[in-house]
Amino acid sequence: MKINENFLKIESSYLFSNIAKRVREYTAANPEKAKNIIRLGIGDVTLPLAPACIEAMHKAVDEMSKAETFRGYPPEYGYDFLLNAINDNDYKARGIDFDISEIFVSDGAKSDTGNIGDIFSLDNRVAICDPVYPVYVDTNVMSGRSGDKVDGKWSNIYYMPCLAENDFLPEIPSEKVDIIYLCFPNNPTGMAITKDYLKKWVDYANANKAVILYDSAYEAFVTEDSVPRSIYEIEGAKTCAIEFRSFSKTAGFTGVRCGYTVVPHDLQFDGVELNKFWARRQATKFNGVSYITQRAAEAVYSDEGKKQIKEILAYYQNNAKIIYDGLASCGFKVYGAKNSPYIWLKTPDGMGSWEFFDLLLNELQVVGTPGEGFGPAGEGYFRLTAFGSTENTQKAVERIKNYFSK
Ligand code: MLT
What is the pLDDT of residue 235? Predict the structure, then answer.
């Protein structure tokens, strides 16, 4: 028996598990101070589910209690009622035409962006933004596609630095890459891509027979018309892109778990539809999302649900503005926030990002995420999220302002 030695190459714990461990250790050592901890680290929501979703879940629970309406295994790619709601609202309403067989309901974008590598050869060259959501890199390391770590970077991964100098936007690769991970609005930088710039990526991918894995988990936070919510708003995307969506950040489903992935029938390589591969992969390794959860997700698209979710999003958008304006007012260089729940800031006085993490935790009892945890180009940056309560967000900003204005 041989183990998968790729796991030996990777850091022993996932970024957010590592942060949670540090906070637990701090709490054990400083129980009094720890009572004041404000968590703006992992992008986990704090507001309860929209009442329309709760109502739909209660109704679905009741159905599960009666033999006539009980449901067992869900259809492997999602119930038609949810697939149709997604298709009608997220695509047809924006002039994008899909068949529901191109949409796959799942337990979220983390799983799908992590699992999608199953359908591609290990020989592909992967391009990722730096900094980046760690799942894209870690899962390529686990499967053996990354090569070895040399000077903090994986030898087979093509890094696309996203820094203040390039407005945190990746540049079109200067060499051939095969699989391109893009996430917009971006996690962690909070920056958005314009339709015009995304078109350049679509053109690159089509011309170079590359696939774009487009993580659109934060699309609900888009406020500007020039920014796409879906890559399929861009002409030519159906032949080069897979899109990942999530109800986590849109509708507070981080604990409920539901998302979906779109694999167009037009996406074909060597005459093979990737849609068939993903369908085969999901049917084999994934057992579907519960009926109760899918009814809750369907309610996101009801008139009431839409209204309630708009208010929830506005609450987080206001938090983002509080953080952005507050930090900018005391001299921090801040980015993101406009089309995103994330605020990306340059650490002061050239501080390392973990050093800044420790300072905020030890001195101010504020938890954020060190930029370095998202990749080497994240060093010297720090991420805060807008998903806390407004009261805590204001408190955290006041603490930072008081400390750094001195
Ligand atoms: C984050 O904080 O980056 C996200 O919450 C992680 C995730 O969605 O898995």
Answer: 98
Q: Say how many CA atoms lie within 13 Å of 128 toward its Cβ.
A: 28
* pLDDT of 217 above 90: yes
Prediction pTM value: 0.97
Q: Which of 405, 383, 401 is nearest to 162 (CA)?
A: 383
Q: Which residues contact 271 (CB under 8 A, 6 or more apart)?
A: none
Asked whether 249 lines ligand 1 (CB < 6 A), one says: no
CA angle 136, 374, 393 (to 5 degrees): 120
E strand or H helix at 322, and its extent? helix 303-329
Q: Residue 33: is its pLDDT beyond 80?
A: yes
Alpha-carbon distances, residue 93 vs 87, 89, 90, 299 (angstroms): 8, 5, 6, 17
Ligand 1 atom 9, closest CA: 110
Q: For 109-118, what is the mean pLDDT? A: 98
Q: Pick from 183, 187, 387 the residue to mutate for probing ligand 1's pocket: most ligand atoms within 8 Å of its CB.
A: 187
341 phi/psi in degrees, rounded to 5? -85, 5
Cα(112) to centroid(ligand 1), Å: 13
Residues 6+ apart with CB under 8 A from 63: 69, 70, 71, 291
Is the per-residue pLDDT at 78 higher than 80? yes
Does the CB atom of residue 328 touch ligand 1 within 6 A? no
Cα of 109 from ligand 1 centre, angstroms = 10
**Cα 91 to ligand 1 centre (Å):** 24
Please list the residues that pair with 150 across neighbouring strands: 153
- 3-class SS at 228? coil
pLDDT at res. 20: 94
pLDDT of 54 higher than 90:
yes
Q: Is 113 in the pocket of ligand 1 (CB under 6 A)?
A: no
pLDDT range class, residue 405, cuts 50, 70, 90: confident
**In terms of C-beta density within 10 A (0-12 exposed, 13-18 middle, 19 or more buried), how is residue 150 classed?**
exposed
Q: What is the pLDDT of residues 184-195, one digit of tens each?
A: 999 999 999 999
- Rounded CA gap, 305 and 236, in Å? 32
Pocket of ligand 1 contains residue 259 by CB under 6 Å: no
Contact 294, 287 (CB under 8 A): no
Is the beta carbon of 340 within 6 A of some atom in ligand 1? Answer: no
Out of 23, 107, 129, 133, give the residue to mutate to test ligand 1, the one with the largest number of ligand atoms within 8 Å of its CB: 133
